[in-house]
Write a structure and sequence with these properties.
alpha/beta, five-stranded antiparallel β-sheet, six-stranded mixed β-sheet
Length: 317
């Protein structure tokens, strides 16, 4: 199969970042999405990550997601979310559960959606079933059959007690493929980071960021959008602040939600090949290496500049 998958909403800390309760929807949806992609790819399926991290509003996020999805010809579009509205933060012994939305019952996503509901329900969640939501932008505007998975409720203590991102991803991957995944390949080992600060990123890492702040304590209304995206080295971590990472000792403070990617430890600009990271564009790669999109397309036999994917090796010269 060829599949588009994305986590809904902007990253946490940004506008339109989704529901927040005992869990944060945006953070967990991205964990689930990453693991679903990994498991599907391990099974030999082609998967495009259409997640958006730089939306300026809820509508902008949705439009950018759909544009990414529609740039690919696929069998299925999958939107991953966590629900809210249960209002049960202490637990009543019952889960509020899982549900999956489709455009209509004629959608080719209908059977897949039913399987996904059943697989998640097998974890112990109430099966709320497949529901019609034709007004939802992602279901209405994508070219391929689409489904929107509401994994569980972020404000239900019983749902949260059952929740595990890895198990949830496995259930979704099994629902999509109809296969039983007995043992998924382990996730790639990441370079060990210093743990003294307790933060996700560390001093010395070179990161690419889409927005920043003038001060470590600035609130979301003071965000500065960075276009085109910039990269820089983390030179300081200010503990206990909202935007803890200082880039290149300048007036540029970022938080985890601002960071799009981390440069591979040994990646050098002089290399003859480049490994595509999540969020990369061919034009961005061309600019970084002082070449052109047309030259990269010619060297790599790429027919559509929009169709590159994370992990792909791109010849530079």
């Amino acid at each position: 199969m060829i599949i588009n998958i994305h986590a809904g909403h902007n990253p946490d800390g940004k506008v339109a970042c989704g529901a927040v309760g005992l869990l944060k929807e945006s953070t967990e949806a991205r964990k689930i999405k990453d693991e679903v992609i990994r498991q599907l790819q391990a099974l030999g399926h082609t998967v495009y990550d259409c997640t958006v991290s730089d939306g300026t509003s809820q509508n902008d996020v949705l439009q950018k997601i759909v544009a990414k999805c529609n740039a690919h010809t696929v069998d299925l579009d999958v939107s991953i979310h966590l629900n809210a509205g249960a209002g049960d933060k202490t637990g009543n012994g019952k889960t509020t559960g899982t549900e999956v939305y489709v455009y209509d019952h004629k959608s080719k996503a209908q059977d897949v959606a039913k399987r996904v509901c059943e697989k998640i329900a097998a974890m112990g969640y109430k099966n709320r079933g497949v529901k019609l939501r034709p007004e939802l932008y992602v279901l209405n505007k994508t070219k391929a059959p689409a489904m929107l998975v509401e994994c569980c409720f972020v404000d239900d203590a019983d749902d949260v007690a059952l929740y595990d991102a890895g198990r949830m991803a496995k259930a979704i991957a099994e629902g999509i493929t109809g296969a039983t995944i007995t043992s998924a390949a382990p996730a790639p080992t990441q370079p060990t980071k210093p743990t003294s600060t307790g933060y996700v990123h560390a001093v010395g890492e070179t990161v690419t960021y889409s927005s920043c702040y003038n001060a470590s304590t600035d609130t979301p209304d003071k965000v500065i959008q960075v276009r085109p995206y910039k990269s820089g080295k983390i030179t300081r971590i200010q503990e206990g602040t909202r935007n803890p990472y200082l880039i290149e000792n300048g007036r540029c403070w970022v938080n985890d939600g601002d960071i799009l990617k981390v440069a591979p430890v040994q990646q050098q600009v002089s290399e003859s090949t480049y490994t595509v990271n999540k969020g990369d564009t061919l034009s961005g790669i061309a600019k970084k290496y002082g070449t052109t999109v047309s030259e990269l397309m010619k060297l790599n036999a790429i027919k559509d500049a929009n169709l590159i994917f994370a992990g792909q090796k791109i010849r530079i010269k």
